[in-house]
Amino acid sequence: MDENEKEAPAEYEGAIERAAGRVGRHLEGLLREIDEAAARFSEILAAGQPERRGLVEAEPRFHGLKLCDLLQEKSREAWFTDPGGAVELAELAVAVAGRLDIDHYGVGLVEEARALAWAHLGNASRIASDLRRAEEALQTAESCLERSGGDALAEAQILSFKASLRNSQGRFEEAAELLDRALAIYRAAKDRHLEGKTLIKKGMTLGYSGRFAEAVRLLQRGLARIDPAEEPRLLVSARHNLTLYLEESGQHREALSALEATRGLYLELGERMHLVRLRWLEGKIARGLGRLDEAEAALREARDAFVERGIGFDAALVSLDLAMVYVQRGETAEIRRLAAEMVPIFESRDVHQEALAALLLVRRAAEAEEFNLALLQRVATFLHRARHDPGMRFEREQG
Amino acid sequence: MCPARQPSSCDLRQILAEAKPEIDRILRRWRISEAEAEDLITSALLGVSFRWERIHDHRTWVLRAIEKEARGRRAPHREEPDHG
Question: Model ipTM?
Answer without folding.
Answer: 0.85
